[in-house]
Amino acid sequence: MPVDDPGYDATASGRGERAGAPGAGRPDAVPRQRVHSAAEIYLEVQRSPAFQEVRSRYRRFAFPAALAFLLWYLAYVVAATAAPGLMARPVAGAVNVAMVAGLGQFLTTFLLTWAYARHARLRRDRAALDLRWDTQEMTRGVVRP
């Protein structure tokens, strides 16, 4: 039964087929150092170049997108309060500028959601999945308090 999850096939195949440890041969893999607790393992993963790259890709998309959307929303609110004449100007029949801009808010919400999901799928999901597998391999056998 197929699942519409981009990481579904990656979790089921390919992991046991590589020679050596998971992540072997990848230059950005989390270094395999002997650590003694789960906290040390997670700190090591957090400091790794692979994790920093995933976070950097997230920030490079999320912060500008959130700022652009916030500015667009504030422009709508300011225009509605400061320029009611402009917002009341008819566009087509009973539809005015305020209605078009309000519907534009909904449209941009859906477009931003689609762009975020696409960006995550293409730029972050595979690297995050590799990190998850590496972390699980590193924490295997660690006794948690």
Describe the 3D structure.
- A hairpin with a 2-residue loop joins strand 1 (90-92) and strand 2.
- The chain contains 5 helices and 2 strands; from the N terminus they run ααααββα.
- With 145 residues, the protein is mostly helical.
- The chain starts with 7 loop residues before the first helix and ends in a 6-residue tail after the last helix.
Low-confidence stretches: 10-20
Give the helix proportion (percent range): 55-70%
Shape: rod-shaped
Question: What summary fits the major beta sheet?
Answer: 2 strands, antiparallel
Beta-strand content:
under 5%
Mean pLDDT: 81
Distance between the termini: 38 Å
Describe the strand arrangement of the main beta sheet, using strand numbers.
1-2
SSE order: HHHHEEH
CA-atom Rg in angstroms: 23 Å
What is the strand tally? 2
Total helix count?
A: 5
Structural class: mainly alpha
Tell me the layout of helices and strands.
Elements lengths: L7 H5 L25 H10 L1 H34 L1 H5 L1 E3 L2 E2 H43 L6
Q: Which key features would you list for this structure?
A:
single chain, 145 residues, mainly alpha, two-stranded antiparallel sheet, 5 helices, 2 strands
Summary of the model, kept short:
67% of the residues lie in helices and 3% in strands.
